[in-house]
Amino acid sequence: SSDLMSNMKHESRQTEVLYFEDYYKDLKYTIINPQSRGVFEGMGDLLPHPGRKLLYGGHGFRTEASVYDEICRIVDAPIIKLELINEHFYHLDTCFLPLNESEVAIVAEAFSPESLQLIKRMFEGVYEIPIHEAQEGFAANAHIIYNPNRKMTAAIIQKGNPVTLNIIQQSVHRVFEVNTSEFMKSGGSVFCMKMMVY
User: Fold this and answer.
1) How far from the centroid of its chain's Cα atoms is residue 174's Cα?
2) Surface-to-core class of residue 9, CB atoms within 10 Å of its CB (0-12 exposed, 13-18 middle, 19+ buried)
3) Domains by residue range for the chain, with CATH
4) Does 20 have pLDDT greater than 70?
5) Which of 38, 51, 135, 197 allows an S-S link to 101, with CB 3.0 to 4.6 Å?
6) pLDDT at residue 150 greater than cutoff 70
């Protein structure tokens, strides 16, 4: 197994990458550092398409679009670049939530018109998360645990986001609402608190 390391934009977050590197080294992972050294904020901006060998790369506020050319070669998978244009949604994981292979929940106001069209071409069902739920409740920063056989999937979402909760409940077997209000003060919620290890 291998781990692709981030290169965070802000100095206050750059040292945290070293802790992740040590953690994965202890697990005997191969550590990969992109040579371009452009800003790449990891899974905050690089998200998989469920059930496909395809990734989405957010850029505009943190991650630089140019790093995806190298990352595409490293991971041997295509990356669809999505431009973020609303400063409230500085990472892709704050406005883009793949529900399954054919459906996604998004904050439409976060994307450039071209990126919005790309999303609509890639997913059969595109559901809009209300901007107030996304900004105030980090609704799109939920975490969905995909099961390859699709018999059961689960989601974890910040409580108090009724519209987004309903969208997720239509596609996911079980949904758990949690209170991440203290963590939200730092600018993230459920998705920012998890680390999937395969």
Assistant:
1) 20
2) middle
3) 2-193 (3.75.10.10)
4) yes
5) 51
6) no
Confidence of residue 44 (pLDDT cuts 50, 70, 90): very high
Mean pLDDT of 30-49: 93
**E strand map for 108-153:** 125-128, 143-145
Note the residue count of the chain: 198
Give the CA distances from residue 165 to residues 102, 106, 141, in Å, rounded to whole numbers and listed in that order.
18, 13, 12
Q: What is the pLDDT of residues 59-77, one digit of tens each?
A: 999 999 999 999 999 999 9
CA angle 39, 76, 40 (to 5 degrees): 10
State how far the Cα of 24 lies from the Cα of 72, in Å rounded to an integer.
Answer: 21
DSSP state of 140: G
